[in-house]
Amino acid sequence: MMKIHKNLLEIIKYPIITDKTTQYIEDNKYCFAVDYKANKTNIKAAIEYLFNVKVTKVNTSKIPPKTKKVGRFIGKKTKYKKAIIELNNQYKINLFDEN
């Protein structure tokens, strides 16, 4: 049982906060960068376990690696998977600390 909870904690990496995703929060949708191999059921279980909320919908998209150039060196940024989670209307996730 402990191993399952550890795996759920490793699925969600960090919240994605941009202008577009802050507009999503008004519609009760939240964006997270997740493990590249995670599927929708794992993502739903991880969000419900971490934040104690009820998820109604999960949309995912794989973001391809982008090339970056620093001087004469060319490299690639890491690829990642983005999950857009829609919560039930009575639940909220507080991503920002209100002082």
UniProtKB/TrEMBL annotation:
Keyword flag Nucleotide-binding: no
Alphabetical list of Gene3D superfamilies matching this protein:
3.30.70.330
**Pfam families of this UniProt entry?**
Ribosomal_L23
GO cellular component terms attached to this protein's record: ribonucleoprotein complex; ribosome
Under InterPro entries, the record lists: Nucleotide-bd_a/b_plait_sf, Ribosomal_uL23-like, Ribosomal_uL23/eL15/eS24_sf
Q: Which UniProt keywords apply?
A: Plastid, Ribonucleoprotein, Ribosomal protein, RNA-binding, rRNA-binding
Q: Which GO terms describe its biological process?
A: translation
Ribosomal protein among keywords: yes
* GO molecular function term, any single one: structural constituent of ribosome
Could you tell me which HAMAP family the record lists for this protein? Ribosomal_uL23_B
Name of this chain's protein? Large ribosomal subunit protein uL23c
Organism (species): Campylaephora sungminbooi
> What gene is this protein translated from?
rpl23
